[in-house]
Specification:
The chain is an alpha+beta fold. Helices cover 20% and strands 32% of the residues. InterPro entries: DUF2944.
């Protein structure tokens, strides 16, 4: 979290949060949603300003209830998730080694691979998710410790690249992903509806807030 944000939190600790205004889509784009977008259930307008994108990426966190948010100075802006809290791109590094990078530009090391009923590929990171919740913000009220597992959706443009490194069974939802030399990850089936509970995140803080009223 940026120092200027932590300073703003200390100076104005009780600024009301907001929901519904920011969405992370299935391709890792941040989208602003005005009142018309929210009323229509539309995803909103993609943010193109690089400095703003960087600011959101650096101040993207998870609270104790599994809701993801962008800390915009003293105000917490909860994020609507089109699917998962992380979206990754698959690429080949020098020498052909595969890499995964999340929407904030950080490496994502997979521990497991899942395929849902729509053919979407998800990667689980079993180690603590330091990209989403860091030790230096432990004093910020309501911010959770790193989750025991986190999940990322593979960008759909990289599905062909994924299949080049996977051995698939006839059902298309089982097989093996050849991640690194000597490291093969079995493909596991998962229902999209089960993903939020399995990985302890809230896809729509806006709906959760309405339900709690």
């Amino acid at each position: 979290m940026d120092d200027i944000v932590k300073q703003a939190l200390a100076r104005w600790p009780n600024v009301p949060h907001c929901t519904g205004w920011l969405l992370l889509d299935a391709r890792g784009h941040w989208r602003l949603r005005d009142e018309a977008d929210q009323a229509q259930g539309a995803p909103g307008t993609p943010i193109r300003h690089e400095a703003l994108i960087g600011f959101i990426n650096r101040n993207y966190e998870r609270d104790a209830n599994g809701q993801w948010f962008f800390q915009n100075g003293p105000q917490r802006v909860y994020v609507e998730l089109e699917y998962t809290p992380w979206v990754v791109r698959l690429a080949s590094a020098n020498g052909g080694a595969l890499t995964l990078t999340d929407q904030t530009g950080q490496p994502f090391e997979p521990a497991a691979v899942y395929v849902d009923e729509h053919g979407s590929v998800l990667f689980e990171r079993a180690l603590p998710d330091t990209a989403g919740a860091s030790a230096d913000v432990a004093d910020v009220a309501d911010v959770a410790a790193p989750a025991p597992a986190s999940v990322a959706l593979l960008h759909d443009h990289d599905l062909d690249g994924f299949t080049e490194h996977a051995t698939l069974a006839e059902d298309g939802a089982s097989g093996t992903f050849h991640w690194r030399a000597g490291s093969a990850l079995p493909l596991q089936s998962i229902a999209r509806a089960d993903v939020p509970a399995r990985f302890a995140f809230v896809p729509s803080p806006e709906q959760a807030e309405k339900a709690a009223r």
